[in-house]
Amino acid sequence: MRLWRIVTVDFAGWTQYARVDQRSNTALTFGLGAALPMQAVRPTVRLYAVHQHEEGMVSVKDHPWGTLFGIGAGIRHRAGGGVSLGAEVPFARTRFGEIFLFGSGSATVFPDTSLGPLVYAGVAVGIGVNYLIVLGDQPK
């Protein structure tokens, strides 16, 4: 949700493969972000809290449904925070919003290093949608 075309409140999740111990990482994040409301390219920043499940690929293979729901064998639960820097490039506009390309780099930090690395770094690219939600009557 983007307020005043600048501030965002969001929830995001992902799953990824990590070479460290050949593990699967599934993360749920809650974040606050900001975007400069420019026309061609919008720089973005996001700060987030994260809860991550980390599990060896052997366990994923043996218990795929347990892994999906966070109840598989050998899951390590970790909490931390992170920052992401990126940009959005709008390429299509409709009366309901816009479609854009995005790219970002992120670093996620986990204070408890007894369960794994201190920092995970990543890069993301994709297509997103900003849609307009209007409260109240619209002028005709």
Quaternary state of this entry equals: single chain
The major sheet is characterized as:
7 strands, antiparallel
The assigned structural class equals: mainly beta
Which spans of ≥5 residues are poorly predicted at pLDDT below 50?
none
Number of helices: 2
- Mean pLDDT across the residues is 85
Radius of gyration: 18 Å
Proportion of helical residues: under 10%
Order of helix and strand elements from N to C terminus? EEEEHHEEE
Q: What distance separates the N and C termini?
A: 25 Å
Percent strand: over 45%
Q: In order across it, which strands form the biggest sheet?
A: 1-2-3-4-5-6-7
Q: Your description of this structure?
A:
With 140 residues, this protein is mainly β. The chain has one domain (2-131). 8% of the residues lie in helices and 62% in strands. It is built from two helices and seven strands, in the order ββββααβββ. The longest helix is centred in the middle third of the chain and has 6 residues, at 57-62. The radius of gyration is 18 Å and the shape is elongated. The mean pLDDT is 85.
Quick summary:
With 140 residues, the chain is mainly β.
Protein traits:
mainly beta, 140 residues, 7 strands
Sequence-ordered SSE layout with sheet pairings:
Blueprint: E1 2-3, E2 7-18, E3 23-35, E4 42-56, H1 57-62, H2 64-68, E5 76-94, E6 97-109, E7 119-131
